[in-house]
Amino acid sequence: MRQVRAPFTGEVIGAFDDDDRRTVVEAFDRARAAHAAWAATSVDARASIILRFHDIVAQRRNEVLDLLQREAGKARRDALEEVLDVLIAARHYARDARRLLADRRVRGAIPLVVGAEVRHIPWGVVAVIAPWNYPLTLTASDAIPALLAGNCVVVKPDEHTSLTALWVLERFREAGLPRDVLQTVLGPGDVVGPWVINEADYVMFTGSTRVGRIVATACGERLIPCSMELGGKNAMIIRADADPERAAEIAVRASFANAGQLCISMERIYVNRTIEATFTAAFVRRTLALRLGTQIGWGSDVGSLISGRQLARVQSHVDDAVSKGATSLAGGRPRPDIGPYFFEPTILAGVTEAMVACDEETFGPVVAIHSVGSDEEAVRRANATEYGLNASVVGRDRRAARRVARELRAGTVNVNEGYAAAWGSVRAPMGGMGQSGLGRRHGDEGLLKYTQSQSIVTQRALGFGSPEGLTDERWGSALVFAVTAMKRLGLK
After folding, report:
1. Does residue 475 sit within a domain?
2. Bridge partners (DSSP) listed for residue 269
3. What is the pLDDT of residues 128-167, one digit of tens each?
4. Does 243 share its domain with 368?
5. Domains: count for the chain
6. Which of 152, 219, 226, 263 is catalytic?
7. Is 226 a catalytic residue?
8. In the prediction, which pLDDT does 221 show?
9. Which of 81, 229, 276, 361 is catalytic?
10. Catalytic: 229?
11. Helix (H/G/I), strand (E/B), else coil: 300
């Protein structure tokens, strides 16, 4: 029996049995048996279930907010982001699914002679391997488009946050989703994860780049597709024309939301030296004013890290930097007086390439400030990483800030915001470049990736072979004439 402990206090708040290989296989077998009927269900009927799920989550939001705080150690405002994300994603995909999944006609090889139709077919059974940092979002919001596309889904949540995944499962069933269309399998990722990948037709994985490589290798061996959001060392650029106070307010949220346990949060800030002093003073002042707390409900700004392991990682990054000459301008200490895994929001200055925190993702409430002399220097240094998940540019001149944004090698770039603007714009795709992942969430791609395209092409007249009485040479000339005529007519 695996116990679930609250990060705020360490107390046991639940327990469950790990699944073994047999129960994992049985879950996928049930999903496959349910797939034909679910795929045959109309898109409108699927969307109606998702919209009912939307309403249930909205109605029971305080229940799940309490659960997220207890199980994941979040401040309530960070937990609310998850609820809002699920509502936005459910509405977006449910209302766009019919358009995206509709069969569509396209021009065939020769107009009028050849007709072509494109269909979108679900993969079958999708595995969603979800992490602990956003357990509601990365369970529900990844399952929603897969379900709408006609797939059955098996979710493997992180063992730290399985209670939230089970809550999601019950709410989907309450909304009318057939029982075997969505299931969960529980247990440690290094044990249960490979069993899940071995049975799936498609894998959606969110986690570290290190584990992502393992997942991609396993999927490659089976020749099944995968989509992955992985690590990041995200950079914020604060231009010379930025309002220092507004930039500091954005930087605090962007760096310390969810105690920094957010793939798209900021860990590097490049500030133009002409406003460095005023920005840094404002940033430090606002950071020191953040309230750390364990209460269930509103009142705290920053919650707990998830575990002792995560606390040790954050502490080691800070200690390494300080021992090699960096300065802690704010924070830098664990706070066991508040809770076992609390760590103060930390601002470092003087971080160099010799320090682990310079290039390696900390995944905690730690950010480094770097002084730069120009936008060009800021872009060059921001891009000097193997990652490319999220970035931010802050400045009064929005047009100039957007020009800087276009130079950044990141899947999403926020202008005058840290991460929420890009994440919440669900009609725009979201994902990583470089070592930050494969594929995209959101946008049209976020649903269509859960389908295979099938083309059905009908020859209506003639054929591509030479007609009787016409030599191959003359027929070839006629075909070339037809194709070049299409160019003159502006046809593709």
Report:
1. no
2. 236, 369
3. 999 999 999 999 999 999 999 999 999 999 999 999 999 9
4. yes
5. 2
6. 263
7. no
8. 98
9. 229
10. yes
11. coil
